[in-house]
């Protein structure tokens, strides 16, 4: 059985990966070795079979004994350990959820329901670094894969509604604390005039006691139209990833223009995106829906009705599931071939852990 080193299995993405691997029985087909950056020698996680004690995640010699390494430990770890392994001649498969190696010429961004051919070709050509994509990009491609595959996307603009989980575990907790602080300010006067409630809520959100250490601003009851660091052209890095990662995943020789504004909103772990897309041909909506629905097993076309939208096209409906609904599909009044779409996806599943889990299965096939 293939020896697989697993690093960063206790963090947010790592825990979701572990949960998915347990429920898909993935541990039965591999010989897993769990690594730690702080608790070497302690007992490993319960995976339903005997495993060695936790190994030191910075011990390059032990890591070199692995045929595959899966890391959810983050970019700092990757930047420190990966070069030592490669420079030391290790030719195993490195699978990573972090962004550090994504745009490297020696890596492939993995999203196998969309780019399995690119992955297989890369493998045959000697590529050994397979990196999970940015969550927004992966979720957009899971939803719109059918239109890309049909060569119908001339350009697209995506306006995002990104969950707290994308910023980290502490941020998810801070969002809940913010919700609590709002409730605390308003609850005692909820039976009174709404103007007083509104004033109390705004006062609490602007007050010094409102918990904003992680987001830097109120998110509950508000939003933050900025994600990640600035680029030189006025985009944020998150917005830049949209165009660069999408075209790398699809291995497009001529890049498809993609741009938009990335916005943090107060959901826990589902990212949503409102997309304006220019089709190459002025297709009928029924044909657009057929192409979208046939792309993979997880995308689900939601009819453009209020009832279906409220039932199936919200973060609440999607959270914790692998379903990627896409709805609000209609022709826009902006010219031939311009359509709108809205999609929602779990940022920790298809946005992070699932492409990595599936790549592991491909690597040990
Ligand atoms: N960068 C994303 C976000 C999450 O901030 O929502 C990771 O892909």
From TrEMBL:
Pathway: Amino-acid biosynthesis; L-methionine biosynthesis via de novo pathway; L-homoserine from L-aspartate: step 2/3; Amino-acid biosynthesis; L-lysine biosynthesis via DAP pathway; (S)-tetrahydrodipicolinate from L-aspartate: step 2/4; Amino-acid biosynthesis; L-threonine biosynthesis; L-threonine from L-aspartate: step 2/5. One of its GO terms (molecular function) is NAD binding. SUPFAM superfamilies: Glyceraldehyde-3-phosphate dehydrogenase-like, C-terminal domain, NAD(P)-binding Rossmann-fold domains. The keyword Protease does not apply. CDD domains: ASADH_C_bac_like, VcASADH1_like_N. It catalyses: L-aspartate 4-semialdehyde + phosphate + NADP(+) = 4-phospho-L-aspartate + NADPH + H(+). Residues 3-122 form the Semialdehyde dehydrogenase NAD-binding domain. Its EC number is 1.2.1.11. The active site is at residues 135, 271. GO terms for biological process: 'de novo' L-methionine biosynthetic process; diaminopimelate biosynthetic process; isoleucine biosynthetic process; lysine biosynthetic process via diaminopimelate; threonine biosynthetic process. Homodimer. HAMAP family: ASADH. This is Aspartate-semialdehyde dehydrogenase. The gene is asd.
């Amino acid at each position: 059985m293939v020896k697989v080193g697993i690093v960063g299995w206790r963090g947010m993405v790592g825990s979701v990966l572990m949960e998915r691997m347990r429920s898909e029985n993935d541990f039965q087909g591999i010989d897993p070795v769990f690594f730690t950056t702080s608790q070497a020698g302690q007992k490993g996680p319960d995976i339903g079979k005997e495993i060695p004690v936790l190994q030191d995640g910075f011990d390059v010699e032990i890591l070199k004994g692995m045929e595959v390494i899966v890391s959810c430990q983050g970019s700092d770890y990757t930047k420190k350990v990966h070069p030592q392994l490669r420079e030391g001649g290790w030719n195993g498969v490195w699978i990573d959820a972090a962004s550090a190696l994504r745009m490297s010429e020696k890596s492939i961004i993995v999203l196998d329901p969309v780019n399995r051919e690119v992955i297989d070709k890369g493998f045959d050509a000697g590529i050994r670094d397979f990196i999970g994509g940015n969550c927004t990009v992966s979720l957009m491609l899971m939803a719109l894969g059918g239109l890309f595959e049909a060569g119908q996307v001339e350009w697209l603009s995506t306006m995002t509604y990104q969950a707290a989980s994308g910023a980290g575990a502490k941020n998810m907790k801070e969002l809940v604390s913010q919700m609590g602080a709002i409730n605390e300010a308003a609850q005692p006067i909820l039976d009174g005039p709404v103007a007083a409630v509104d004033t109390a809520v705004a006062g609490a959100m602007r007050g010094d006691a409102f918990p904003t250490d992680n987001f830097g601003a109120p998110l509950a009851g508000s939003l933050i139209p900025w994600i990640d660091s600035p680029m030189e052209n006025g985009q944020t890095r998150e917005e830049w990833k949209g165009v660069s990662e999408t075209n790398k995943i699809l291995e497009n020789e001529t890049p498809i223009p993609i741009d938009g504004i990335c916005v943090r909103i107060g959901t826990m772990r589902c990212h949503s995106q409102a997309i304006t897309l220019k089709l190459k041909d002025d297709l009928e909506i029924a044909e657009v829906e057929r192409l979208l629905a046939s792309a993979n097993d997880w995308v689900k076309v939601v009819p453009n009705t209020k009832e279906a939208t409220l039932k199936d096209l919200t973060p609440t409906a999607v959270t914790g599931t692998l379903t990627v609904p896409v709805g609000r599909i209609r022709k826009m009044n902006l010219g031939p071939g311009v359509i709108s779409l809205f999609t929602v996806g779990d940022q920790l599943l298809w946005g992070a852990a699932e492409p990595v889990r599936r790549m592991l299965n491909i690597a040990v096939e």
